[in-house]
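Example 9 (inverse folding). The structure is encoded as follows.
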């Protein structure tokens, strides 16, 4: 991990995500992830309503241990103890599993654009899901600090999300040095990525960009 990233998520609603990422980066040391026990809620007060702690229960599967009240409104129920896939449409869950696998196996920062369509009692929404790997008490990468921020308030009916568009997706190895993340574009060079791939319909042209390396 390096210092503060020059990249800031492209949304007027993602200030809490910027705060959360900067705090996570401030805890990192060379070749060592922040630990779950180091997280101080008082340092991320703006992000708390949208934030959660995720626990790995199997490859590509994460369960929420702690979650902010804004997430309860989006899901339409208490999210603690629920898999994070409960926030997503069935057709998006394959891609989500792939990114959760990257989160913990690399480990990597994952910043996904998300959206949901308009429906009765529910406005259209877009936003971002930020996932930041953490170490557990044994030093294994089995936890994550995350947040979900959307640009419209929750409606009368729960939302279920899709992933995309791919042009604003970020993926960054958490302990790689001299790495400058930037937006993904079709013109950028392609690097192969380890790990399973999502289905064709859920798999955009995924790119990992290493600026300055």
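The amino acid assigned to each position is listed next.
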């Amino acid at each position: 991990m390096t210092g503060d990233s020059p990249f800031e998520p492209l949304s007027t609603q993602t200030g809490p995500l910027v705060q959360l990422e900067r705090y996570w980066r401030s805890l990192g040391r060379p070749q060592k992830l922040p630990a779950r026990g180091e997280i101080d809620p008082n340092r991320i007060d703006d992000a708390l309503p949208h934030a959660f702690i995720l626990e790995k229960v199997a490859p590509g599967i994460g369960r929420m241990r702690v979650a902010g009240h804004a997430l309860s409104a989006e899901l339409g129920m208490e999210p603690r103890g629920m898999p994070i896939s409960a926030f997503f449409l069935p057709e998006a869950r394959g891609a989500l599993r792939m990114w959760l696998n990257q989160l913990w196996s690399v480990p990597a920062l994952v910043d996904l654009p998300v959206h949901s369509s308009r429906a009765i009692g529910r406005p259209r929404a877009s936003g971002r899901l930020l996932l930041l790997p953490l170490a557990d008490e044994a030093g294994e990468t089995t936890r994550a600090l995350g947040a979900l921020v959307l640009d419209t308030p929750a409606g009368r009916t729960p939302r279920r999300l899709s992933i995309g568009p791919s042009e604003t997706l970020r993926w960054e190895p958490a302990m790689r040095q001299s790495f400058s993340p930037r937006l993904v574009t079709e013109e950028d060079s392609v690097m192969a990525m380890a790990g399973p791939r999502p289905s064709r319909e859920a798999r955009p042209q995924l790119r990992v960009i290493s600026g300055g390396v």
